[in-house]
Amino acid sequence: MYQEKLQNIQDEVNHILRGKDYVVRKVLAAMLGGGHILMEDIPGVGKTTLATTFAKALSLDYRRVQFTPDVLPSDILGFSMYNSNSREFEFREGPIFCNLFLADEINRTSPKTQSALLEVMEERQVSVEGETRKLEEPFIVIATQNPTGSSGTQMLPDSQLDRFLICLSMGYPEHSAEVAMLKDEVWKQLADVRQMISLEEFKALREQTEKVFVHDSIYEYIVSLVEATRKNGLFSMGASPRGGIALLRMSRAMALIDGRDFVTAQDVQNVLLDVLGHRVKLSARARAEGKNMWACMQELLHTVKSPRS
Hints:
This protein is α/β, with parallel strands linked by helices. It has 13 helices and eleven strands. It has a five-stranded parallel sheet with strand order 2-5-8-1-9. It has a two-stranded antiparallel sheet with strand order 3-4. Strands 6-7 form a two-stranded antiparallel sheet.
């Protein structure tokens, strides 16, 4: 039953985002795992469309903010305004009070505004003027950022990068997918995206994800992979324990999407780069050898013994 619902969601999103099945699958897994998603790519490849389509298919209350250098924390979190009738200050909620928040081009805004999201992403709460307000569950952030070095951008701090469960890149579509997109004029069909499940059904799917069985050998495997990033000479900065937690959550979600109630080593391997790639830094040795993050993660998988599935 769960697998059919999850497949229907993917089919609905894939109808709009042609040729990006693998990205859709992992974004859905991150949402089921209760995490936030960072999309790093050039403008115009469908990152905003991805967020909008998922919001409609999953019945999520959706807000979008275009991050620019002049956006302030109060523009995101909200602010208090004096009401002359009641003679009291009233809090006006910012766009962050929703189920799915799209932070578009997050690396174009100031570090102060970027840091305003830290508490929200980790604690699911907003603190303004000494008062803390809880956000309703589910709460998911999808942030997009232009590639490092693009005009008007600045790197996100490591502490904020670590709050994202996964980091993905959509890339350009395949030739046939782009032709189909033009022929079908899919950008006109966004308003017709169907609601595939209710908000309560989505919450139930998240609860089911947490029940997926994990064998002791898989726990050992996840920790060994994370520890290897700290000891392997390919990385100058390894992953924190939060990276291991993220691997566990994503692996469980991938298992559920595949229709299983248990995690395999392959589930962990399939999301290793997406989960740890933005949490570690390549060493000077790795760069001198001309290795990119993908190659280093593949070497990691070869050096850490995998349990039998």
